[in-house]
Write a structure and sequence with these properties.
Blueprint (H helix, E strand, L loop, with lengths): L4 E3 L8 E4 L7 E4 L1 E8 L2 E8 L7 H36 L5 H10 L1 H4 L9 H10 L9 H8 L3 H8 L9
Antiparallel strand pairs: 1-4, 2-3, 4-5
Amino acid sequence: MENEIKTVPTVLHTSVHYYGSGSTGMNTYPDQYMLAILQNGNIQSLSGHLYSGITTMYELLNHKEKKESFYILAVDNLMKKNDFLQLSIQLDQQLITEEEFEKELEENESKYLIKMDNNCNKVDFEIALDILPKLNRTFTADEVSELFAIPLENIHCYLDGEVKIENS
């Protein structure tokens, strides 16, 4: 077949870091992976950070797909926020009436409304958090909630009151 995809289901490289020792024992944290894929005679590779709970190649590929969907979701939600801001400016500058503003929001709800994902789990949250340092700024819990459509109460639950959302 011309478009046949062959995968090499092997982690070609892992980097393991050891933390702690003594009476508490030693924990290992494999943190990197690389996967090679042969497609139409070309080798492509995926590499990245391993997360807790990822134990199979399927989960690894699913993780990459989920991360990409979070990037798309963040851009989409920023555009919704921008569209709402533009509409609000039109209202503020009296270019549209309050009734026109309300009508636009009702008729085009999907253009302005960020729908929260109540099915987001802790692994999804960790994937979303992995994106934040690449944006080179500090985020509030509210901003993370809006970007990735994660309910604010879930964020507080996942953070457990101990971790701050900030760029490291």
